[in-house]
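User: two proteins, same treatment. go.

Assistant:
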Amino acid sequence: MLLAFATSADIPRLTALVNRAYRGDASRQGWTTEAHLLDGQRIDAAGMAEMLAVPGAAMLLCLAENGELLGSFYAHATGPQVYLGMLAVDPEKQARGVGKFLLKAAEDYGRQHGCTTSKMTVISVRTELLAYYERQGYRRTGATEPFPTDPRYGIPRQPLTLLVLEKPLALPQ
């Protein structure tokens, strides 16, 4: 697996990957689907372009040696904290270490930018995903955030809340 950073040229395939990983019938092939919780898309090309333009942020890509896009993860370093979001792995490539590869790379990105804490939000009813991140050292802070109401990010089928998870990051020696 190879690590790369997304550019605007990657927006079409990146948007397709994220939507395939989170929504619709294709997402049901993997264990990270949100298709049972939300209708609509996860992100559009304009939203992806906005994310890529944020100062201090990067969309990390996991590529196969042949250049195939296996997964992606958003990392935004601000001060002592790196926010991680939208981990997406091709549903047909899940459970092969791509997510762990990207999680480590995103945490390393935070460390390289002087961050001492990694933060993410997870939908409260995603018990399997919460358990996954807890196995990776993340802990629930007790804080919550409202689920976005912008339909560009999906239309909830039920009321949803985001739980805040954090993990301390040891800086490189």
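Protein 2:
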Amino acid sequence: MGARRCSGCLSCLIIPLALWSIIVNILLYFPNGQTSYASSHKLTNYVWYFEGICFSGIMMLIVAAALLILERNTPYKCCQSENCSKKYMSLLSIIFSVLGIAFSGYCLVISALGLVQGPYCRTLNGWEYVFEDTTGSFLSDPSTWSQCLEPAHVVEWNIILFSILITLSGLQVIISLIKVIIELSKILCTTYSVIIQPGII
């Protein structure tokens, strides 16, 4: 019962993480609250991968909903015995948890790439990725951030929001991985077994 409650809490925790991912990703489209840069496509290309909105957001909400349904105490007879049904439900939970790892992992990777690449901004030479060839070293050198003249403070904006996305999606990966371990332990370390009822064959 304790393991089941813990597993359910983990699934519930995915929901606020997914909602925050959607919000943070949306904020990336509006540096300093301005909409003109999104409408003119003057944003870093990695925001158009919708990593926080679709993958770490909507898709993870679907994963969380599926996991919560599978964890309900209502018995679901999917095969000839209760033990077989429990094993089947654990396998489904593992599948959805692995999907969760894939979705949140995608957001984690894309956000990290966006963070390292730096923002698309206007410099003295025009609009460009001024930090693209620095391999992320600009992150620890704030004196170089003034090269971006427009949007104002876009470097700080991108660093903060991409870092938050990395944290949120990283937590989702960890939670999904723990879910996989819990469900595998249920299958391998408990009494789940396929029992053929007498007279069925």
